[in-house]
Amino acid sequence: MTQYTGRPLNRVDGVDKVTGKANYAAEFDVQGLLYGYIVNSTITKGKIRQIHTDDARRVEGIVSIFTHENRPKLAWFDLSYKDQDAPPGSPFRPLRDAQIQFNGQPIALVVAETFELARYAATLIRVDYEQETHQTDLQANRHKARKPAVGMATLFKPPPPDPRGNFEEAFRNAPVQVASEYVHGSEHHNPMELFASTVVYEKGRYKSGERYTIYDKTQGVTNSILYVSQVFNIPFKDIRVISPYVGGGFGSALRPQHQLFLAVLAARELKRSVRVTLTRQQMFTLGYRPATVQTVALGASSDGTMTAMYHDGVAVTSQFEDYTEVVTTWGGLLYPAEHVKFDQKIISLDVATPMDMRAPGGVTGVTALECAVDELAYKLGMDPLELRLRNYTERNMNNDLTYSSKELRECFRRGAERFGWAKRNPEPRSMRKEHTLVGWGMATGIWDAFHAPARAEAVLMVNGKLRVSSATADIGTGTYTIMTQIAADTLGIPMEDVLFKLGDTDLPVAPIAGGSWTAATVGSAVKAACEAVGEKLFKLARKLPNSPFAKVRFSDVLFAEKAIRLKKDPAIAIPLQTLIDANGGAAVRAISTSVPNLLKQRKYARNTHSAVFVEVEVDEDFGTVRVTRAVTSVAAGRILNPKTARSQIIGGMVWGISKALEEESVMDHQFGRIMNHSLAEYHVPVNADIHELDVIFVEEHDDIVNPLGVKGVGEIGIVGMPAAIANAVFHATGIRVRTLPITLDKLLTAATTEVSTS
Amino acid sequence: MNLTLGTLLPTNESPSLPAIQTATRQPVTLTVNGVKTELQLAPWTSLLDALREYMHLTGTKKGCDHGQCGACTVLVNNKRINACLTLAIMQEDTQITTIEGLSSLDQTSSSSKLHPLQRAFIDHDAFQCGYCTPGQICSAVGLLNEGHAKTADDVRELMSGNICRCGAYPGIVAAITSVMDSQPTTV
């Protein structure tokens, strides 16, 4: 039997998704369901003086209205509101008091018999505010930049390392220097599915009296159950969180969102089932990728050897939590400069707390860094690819560890070849197609290969089918499919006989699905659980009369084609069904915990890498930019399913196009409110924006990262893309736009300025 | 009209003011996937909410409720429309087809009865999270019915009313063109 892992197989959840049978959080049919509609603050900072709900209450069909005035007593301490992805600080608590901390803050929940009634009644609520002056503008508040507080989250997002060597001196003495400032706007995740929680309230069926079954849009049901249990003081056994399908996450569902809190609150108080769904506009009141200003300075000798590197950054956070991400230290992982200095600060403004968004920090920092490297290449008169090869490193300079595997050189080679990079004329504005300027740019990408502990269960059932489960999530990443492949291969069972279940707190615990760690984390647990079942089957096999396995060890057997077999002679076999029968007709079951081998891992730097090559066409008259083709070659360990992995990389590339050219949450600082809070005005790529995208996987053999040798592909696709595009735009136009997104106004303004100054 | 909890529960404000009566529910008959159903709907109920909340046909998705994302695309008399931009009551005399009605798939049958576009979407991995997928597929059926798309570029342009945040566009184009190629008469 051929192995399933490594093959480009269709998704196992494909039929459910194309027939409409896949149910998302707002789609579970519940008897007697009530609908909640959120009212948001229209000021940015201050206090609610009075909230008039009398008109709304008069609407026939309105069941209740919750505000800070009638909110029941809940957990007192901040700690109870901390979730698995909470940054240091005091988490936002909806309806806590009259204080307004950011624009769009939820201030009331209207609960009604129908969605239409709740929505209408919400419009009748009037609020008197006591307004205070607010600050929401990063640029105007740069003097307030400060070091972030340290907390649990710092574990995964460490502050920059101490300086090495003497940057100032090395930079001063470098014959070739570049130093630039890069500005990125904030971005909202905007998954297609609106945030929703359906809370099913049941009474009397259980000893404790009350039971909450919650269908939540989340990247981690475990995170949601912890939050609900702590905040509302409901025992774990009375809560079950279910999330079989998630309509996109990208980080936005890593933290429990307002609607979960409000739906549970209403269900508990009204003793009824309640659903709360956000509107698209309200999705802009959640977390986001923070706006940043970064400075990168690079010094090199005239042969291109990088000697000095400086990278600092300031990012926005809220007044109540110190959200940080690793922005400025990636240069130490990519280039072996000896004299380096990194700095990272935050500015507290009157805004919601930012959140992890696809490749948090990585795509921000690497974009600035890789644009600066391109600028250096031009100053040196050197090919950008050659410059990167000249400064290739086998070690992470920040922790002085060798990479567990790093096939970036091969990524460069194969990506360049596929793209045709050798034919590039380095001169800006040298390539043209009728009225469009053509530009070719490239960049490197890098992301972490995390691995966290997780649990999984495997049950070989009496009918010979294998049921495997873990409380992880499939946010479109392909978790269902790759876990099915791993389980099928480990026990030699056809994929169609394997059922993988996830997104349910009744299943063995797994961490939130983010940071590209799910394949490694949950995959290792699934493998371990299946192996544990395998060992039990082996013991059963040995006990059979005249067993050919009586004198061999577990390491001498393999599982294939529904049988346990001798490795040296696979024809000697016992069917699994025989073993189940020998088990007294009972299922064979095992739960395993996979824990990273820290002793092994700590000796190595563990990362994924990519090389990105992009072609853009820029309309000379209108300044419009199109990415006409792009090649990304990725080194991310072993690829479990080239089909779903490719889709993830393609998706990341689309996100890169979006970041470079389209998306930005634009705030009117006078009101502290996002102006383009709809999918018509918040631009993300549509089909017509996306052209030829090509993906190459350069496989790596890696025994260090985890038992599966996988590194994860959720983030690496976006990381190098925006810089490659910005560099291609420079090559096409001769204009360096350092403020993303590169919209036509920026190109045209720069073009006009250049003409007038020359 | 049903008695609701809201009218029974005492409220702490203005008990003397009269209740505000909003749009009353009335019978609305919709023909969805060939089946005629009479619903009790307030006239302000969108077709999208009627399908999702009153008929439990949740295959049709809500992504923006403003006609900006295409997730709610359904076929009305074989033409693709955004179900969030029409009221249910306006569709009483039409044939509505949703994702649930595209295949002849029942609970027990295999996937072989999928609509060719559904099959192609799976084979070309034309989705990730799956949330925009029913809208994409319904839109693609409408696109083929219109017969304007001749090339992959046409497909890109004419499918641009359906946003896919996962960025599965290359797969979507490949899936649709593969069906166009295999059914030249429809184009």
UniProtKB/TrEMBL annotation, chain A:
GO molecular function: iron ion binding; oxidoreductase activity
Residue ranges of every copy of the Aldehyde oxidase/xanthine dehydrogenase a/b hammerhead domain listed in the record: 19-133
Record-linked InterPro entries: Ald_Oxase/Xan_DH_a/b, Ald_Oxase/Xan_DH_a/b_sf, Ald_Oxase/xanthine_DH-like, AldOxase/xan_DH_MoCoBD1, AldOxase/xan_DH_MoCoBD2, AldOxase/xan_DH_Mopterin-bd_sf
Pfam families: Ald_Xan_dh_C, MoCoBD_1, MoCoBD_2
Name listed for the protein in its UniProt record: Molybdopterin-dependent oxidoreductase
Automatic annotation (TrEMBL), chain B:
Pfam families: Fer2, Fer2_2
Top-rank lineage group of the source organism: Bacteria
Gene3D superfamilies: 3.10.20.30, [2Fe-2S]-binding domain
Span of the signal peptide: none
Keywords: 2Fe-2S, Iron, Iron-sulfur, Metal-binding, Oxidoreductase
Entry's Gene Ontology molecular function annotations: 2 iron, 2 sulfur cluster binding; metal ion binding; oxidoreductase activity, acting on the aldehyde or oxo group of donors
InterPro entries tied to this protein: 2Fe-2S-bd (IPR002888), 2Fe-2S-bd_dom_sf (IPR036884), 2Fe-2S_ferredoxin-like_sf (IPR036010), 2Fe-2S_ferredoxin-type (IPR001041), 2Fe2S_fd_BS (IPR006058), Aldehyde_Oxdr_Iron-Sulfur (IPR052914), Beta-grasp_dom_sf (IPR012675)
Chain ranges of the 2Fe-2S ferredoxin-type domain: 26-102
Protein name: 2Fe-2S iron-sulfur cluster binding domain-containing protein
Lineage of origin: Bacteria, Pseudomonadati, Bacteroidota, Cytophagia, Cytophagales
